[in-house]
Write a structure and sequence with these properties.
- The structure holds 2 protein chains of 2 kinds.
- Chain A has 2 domains: 195 residues, no CATH class; 173 residues, no CATH class.
- A 6-stranded mixed β-barrel of chain A has the order 3-4-9-6-8-7.
- Chain A is built from 14 helices and 11 strands.
- By secondary structure, chain A is an alpha+beta fold.
- Chain B is α/β, with parallel strands linked by helices.
- In chain B, the strands form 2 sheets. A 6-stranded mixed sheet of chain B has the order 6-7-8-3-9-10.
- In chain B, helix 3 crosses helix 4 and helix 4 packs across helix 5.
- The radius of gyration of chain B is 18 Å and the shape is globular.
- The chains are: A alpha+beta, B alpha/beta.
- Chains A and B meet through helix 1, helix 11, helix 12 and helix 14 of A and helix 2 and helix 3 of B.
- Bound molecules: adenosine-5'-diphosphate (ADP) and magnesium ion.
- The site of adenosine-5'-diphosphate has 12 residues of chain B, from strand 1, strand 2 and helix 1.
């Protein structure tokens, strides 16, 4: 029998048993829907977390070290020199906060003092003006870059043209040179984001020389794990940190390491869900087998007839296998659709569960590879659980089957 | 003379079951020539269906030989027997055995799907077979469960014809039909015989047997000629025909 003939037979068999087929396949639908919903949700959570942590750049390394003292510019310069094979550029940051006022409004500025290269390293998107320049940075001028939500808060309209305007930060007049896109989680509460030269921040705002977080951009094509371990070793040596304290004193985070951490966290969760789904699929598969066995019994005369008309064992086996595979595959497709829809429904809930800040939404992500995997699993279930009934059908004796009542 | 289409020699068939051994065929020898309409008669339980299943390669003899068109079927594998059924044999059953939800055409095409007949040819041959049994074209796309008994049996005969078999085997084909409809079916067989088909027909109805070129009788698994049958009937008095 040709495949096209088999498909025709299968279609008419389903036509005869629509309600029963649908009910039987429910177990598979639920199992697949659970797998897809979880996979899509976890994919979405991962993307969203990475985004929130500003780790969209594959080459970015976040460095922080504290052991008896904080990092200083000397450390940064030394690191820049000694690790120049690993890093294209290293950017120190320091943070502070101060009141910020326009002619009419007042807010709290969360200030990041840094180098101009911060713009490239973090992939900052400018909406107006520019980031501050090297000259402004070197001489510690009173220039500031604010984000769009700050524009809205201070000037009433997020599209107001504010480059060249003056704002008071910590009692000093700053000139706004540019406006950036708002970052994730921005614009909430009374806080606004402000960038200014490191030197300006240290001398005029915080009055300290300590460096907080350091951002490194690894050279193109670098092995990020190697860069991270090199950096750790370098810091341990420079700060003289004994082996036992390194874990708690040095933070070197790459996108890869963060993804690995997330993967372990979410992976165990996914494993649990997969186990639940597998049980559902097993139960679903047994349901399919049961239905196919009933099917074979109900159609014994038809099987006998087909054999009398010249069907070989393999023709009968194929016919019933295709039926069960179509059944599970249809269940799989239904499960994928339901699971994907369910993931969107659950996305809001999960946002809270994973401690996402307000305004961050999770968009479920499902790859074509997951869809293909699920399709493969369905075909597998159809074959595994359909094989026994199909074989039983194929081995029926034609004479006895023909006269079966 | 050409070889007989069916050549059965000293065939025994012994069923083994929990109840013990059942010797259903006891040394049956039978030849059927091409273009012959043969009738096998016998009372219930005499072994008619067993003989028919043997002729139809659905069952294999316990001993003895069966040659279909000169081919010794006892040497064939299951798949080869299936192929033989698909290409050289046509079956007509007492209870029609159509796929109830499938259309008339689909039912008739069914045996061809187990052969390598090209798709384009299948419909053509199914329509020719339906024309040969005289079913009007209007019914071709009806579901088979929408037909009358006589129409169903004609569809079943068309299905048996469609692969242009060497032999058509019919087990009590008129058993479920009223006498007028049964007559139409027998006319169809008779016409097919005139066109050169070999037909073996099982019945226990003497009116049906009257359509045959030759009748053989079976009693307790043994074939009897007309004379032996008459002698047997006389010996056993009214116990004769059922
Ligand atoms: N599969 C079987 N197992 C055991 N005995 C059988 C089987 N099939 C038929 N028989 C017995 O063989 C004998 C002949 O049966 P059958 O060929 O069906 O007769 P008929 O068709 O003439 O009524 C009967 O006694 C029947 O009970
Ligand atoms: Mg019988």
């Amino acid at each position: 029998m040709k495949l096209s003939d088999l498909v025709l037979e299968t279609a008419s068999a389903f036509d005869a048993n629509r309600a029963r087929s649908l009910l039987t396949v429910l177990g598979v639908v639920i199992g697949i829907a659970a797998v897809i919903a979880m996979t899509a949700l976890i994919g979405g959570v991962k993307a969203s977390l990475m985004n929130e942590m500003g780790m969209s750049q594959a080459r970015l390394v976040e460095i922080y070290c504290f052991y008896n003292r904080e990092m200083t510019l000397d450390d940064i310069n030394a690191m820049q020199n000694e690790l120049k094979d690993s890093y294209e550029v290293i950017v120190p940051t320091t943070s502070g906060s101060a009141d910020i006022t326009s002619s009419t409004e007042k807010a709290t500025a969360m200030i990041t003092g840094t180098y101009p290269a911060y713009e490239t390293v973090m992939g900052v998107k400018m909406l107006q003006g520019r980031f501050f320049s090297q000259d402004e940075s070197n001489s510690g001028q009173l220039v500031a870059v604010i984000d769009q939500s700050a524009v809205k808060k201070l000037f009433g309209n997020e599209n107001a043209q504010v480059t060249g305007e003056t704002v008071r930060i910590g009692g000093l007049d700053f000139t706004i040179v540019g406006v950036t896109e708002s970052g994730a989680g921005a614009g909430y509460g009374d806080n606004v984001t402000v960038y200014m030269p490191l030197r300006t921040c240290q001398q005029r705002i915080s009055g300290a020389t300590a460096i907080g977080e350091v951002l490194g951009l690894a050279v193109e094509g670098a092995d990020m794990n190697k860069v991270a371990s090199e950096t750790r070793e370098w810091l341990a040596k420079r700060f003289n940190i004994p082996e036992s304290d390194q874990e708690d004193s040095i933070y070197v985070i790459t996108m890869q390491s963060m993804r690995e951490q997330l993967d372990t966290l979410l992976g165990s969760f996914q494993l649990l869900m997969t186990a639940v789904a597998s049980i559902s699929l097993l139960v679903g598969g047994i349901g399919i087998m049961n239905m196919m066995l009933t099917n074979v019994t109900e159609r014994i005369r038809e099987i006998g007839l087909r054999k009398a008309l010249g069907a070989r064992r393999r023709d009968i086996t194929r016919q019933f296998l295709l039926e069960s595979v179509c059944l599970t595959l249809a269940g799989g497709v239904l499960g994928i659709v339901l699971g994907y829809a369910g993931a969107f429904a659950l996305a809001g809930l999960a946002g809270g569960a994973f401690g996402m800040s307000e305004g961050t939404s999770i968009t479920p992500v499902i790859g074509i590879d997951s869809v293909l995997l699920v399709a493969g699993i369905c075909v597998g279930i159809g074959i595994v659980f359909g094989y026994y009934p199909a074989r039983r059908a194929a081995r029926l004796d034609p004479v006895e089957s023909l006269h079966y009542q | 003379m050409s070889i007989p289409v069916i050549d059965v020699r000293n065939v025994h068939r012994i069923y083994e079951s929990a109840a013990g051994y059942m010797h259903a065929l006891r040394g049956v020898t039978l030849q059927v020539a091409r273009g012959e309409l043969l009738c096998i008669m016998g009372p219930s339980g005499s072994g008619k269906s067993t003989l028919m299943n043997t002729l139809g390669c659905l069952d294999t003899p316990t001993s003895g030989t069966y040659r279909l068109e000169g081919l010794d079927v006892s040497t064939l594998t299951d798949d080869e027997l299936a192929e033989l059924r698909a290409t050289r044999l046509g079956f007509v059953f007492q209870s029609f055995n159509l796929l109830p939800r499938a259309t008339v055409l689909r039912n008739v095409v069914l045996p061809l799907t187990y052969t390598d007949t090209p798709k384009a040819l299948r419909r053509e041959r199914a329509e020719a077979a339906l024309a040969a049994v005289g079913l009007p074209t209007a019914y071709f796309d009806h579901r088979s469960n929408e037909l009358s008994g006589g129409q169903m049996q004609r569809v079943a005969i068309a299905r048996a014809l469609v692969n242009n078999p060497a032999v058509i085997l019919a087990d009590e084909p008129t058993g479920n039909l009223d006498s007028a409809t049964g007559r139409m079916v027998l006319e169809t067989f008779s016409r097919l015989r005139d066109e050169g088909k070999t037909i073996v027909l099982i019945t226990h109805d003497p009116d049906v047997a009257a359509w045959a070129d030759r009748t053989v009788h079976i009693r307790d698994g043994k074939l009897l000629t007309d004379e032996e049958e008459r002698a047997y009937a006389q010996r056993s008095g009214s116990r004769g025909r059922t």
